[in-house]
Amino acid sequence: MNTVLKPPQNASADNAESPRYAAPALEKGLDILDVLVDTAEGYTLNELSVKLGRTVSEIFRMVVTLERRGYVQGDHNDRYTLTLKLFEMAHRQQPIRSLTAMALPLLRDLANVTRQSCHLSIYHSGRVAVIAQVDSPERWSFGLKVGAVMGLTDTSSGHVLMAFRDPAERERMLAAHTRVEGENDVEPSALLALLDEIRATGHEIVPSRQMRGVTNVAFPVIGSNGDAIAAVNVPYLERIDQKLNPVFDDVCRMVGDMASQLSALMGFSGYNLEGE
User: Fold this and answer.
1) pTM of the model
2) For residues 95 and 271, what is the distance between their CA atoms, to the nearest angstrom?
3) Between the chain's N and C termini, which has fewer beta carbons within 10 Å?
4) Spatial CB neighbours of 275, under 8 Å, sequence gap ≥ 6
5) What distance lies between CA 133 and its chain's CA centroid?
6) Same domain? 152 vs 254
7) pLDDT tens, 175-224?
8) Residues 42 and 80: beta-carbon distance below 8 Å
């Protein structure tokens, strides 16, 4: 028997959509989280109050509560940032757990054979989120942290995730796009042309738009419905000393092979590295 949540019997249908049923405290807490998600450095209470258009006294107790519950953290300068708690809650969803569990052994193998760091990303609320990452086994490495949030429109992972979706879904993703700090501007028509090109080639291999000297090698992980459910990316660094590592073309092939294997594990049977 299903339980249906109903308004009080003396409430009219119009009242159900009125401010009478608003939750101001919850709205305030969600507003704080929305503001903090856009900053890596965090905000002081005074800065938060300006961003939210509220007084410090209005938000103080809510910030303290969010900190006590583990959603935000304050540093020695009294600057507040988000913790990874929301990401960890999302990460506990069964589809993401399954994807991560299947991906991690393949990511470890990929890092070992390429001698490069690698990560797996998904589309999340208008952005791109890293859900798994493995460092290069070399003495030094460059990689993104699990839980890191990236731009949708100026990253190879974001491009791959959008390129391998149907046009209607791609449009919804772009409509929900939320910029991250430092995200580059991208002209819409140029972006759509680029996504079509990526879909035709099956991947994106380009210099990073964020870090000089890094070349992104990104391939889609395709689910059983034929759409991209994740992106595998190697931020490739060329070694210039006498140590021999796999050459760039071999690294690209290895990333494609790994994406193909993971796609097969996720139920897709028609992966084609040369596009459709």
Assistant:
1) 0.67
2) 20
3) N
4) 199, 200, 201, 202
5) 12
6) yes
7) 989 888 888 888 999 999 999 999 999 999 999 999 899 999 999 999 88
8) yes
Which two tokens mark 208?
Answer: 């990073």
Q: 164 is in which domain, residue-wise?
A: 89-265
Q: Which two tokens stand for residue 140?
A: 């030094």
Query: How many Å apart are CA 105 and CA 45, to the nearest integer?
Result: 43
Question: Predicted confidence band at 273 (pLDDT cuts at 50, 70, 90)?
Answer: very low
Amino acid letter, residue 180:
V
Q: Do the domain assignments include residue 250?
A: yes
Is there a single domain that holds both residue 210 and residue 169? yes
Gap between the Cα atoms of 128 and 124, Å rounded: 6
- Which whole number is the average pLDDT over 246-261? 96
